[in-house]
User: Which sequence fits this backbone?
């Protein structure tokens, strides 16, 4: 059961990262970002919202190791921390940001706690 949910989480991450990697303009629209006057924004989306998550999810699927999935969880935990600070300081669209935060917390929680060795 843990393996199946891990694989689903990695595949969802791969799909979402794929949008940033292959369709940065679409991703920019969904995330309310603009690329005014420079294509550097597209490059950053391909790298940070795309390639980073594609690479992490592919590593999880290839390695299949619990600690690889836990590392993906820590990436989601970092995203959730950034989103939490943003909610407190930036006044983003509350419903959208809270929904993304919930997604990040659920994935972080599962991937970390289901895959970390008990010490």
Assistant:
């Amino acid at each position: 059961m843990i393996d199946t949910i891990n694989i689903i989480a990695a595949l969802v991450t791969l799909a979402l990262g794929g949008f940033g990697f292959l369709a940065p303009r679409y991703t920019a629209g969904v995330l309310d970002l603009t690329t005014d006057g420079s294509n550097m924004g597209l490059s950053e989306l391909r790298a940070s919202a795309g390639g980073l998550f594609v690479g992490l999810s592919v590593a999880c699927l290839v390695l299949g190791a619990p600690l690889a999935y836990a590392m993906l969880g820590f990436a989601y935990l970092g995203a959730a921390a950034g989103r939490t600070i943003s909610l407190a300081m930036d006044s983003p669209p509350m419903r959208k940001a809270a929904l993304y935060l919930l997604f990040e917390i659920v994935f972080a929680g599962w991937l970390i706690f289901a895959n970390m060795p008990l010490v």
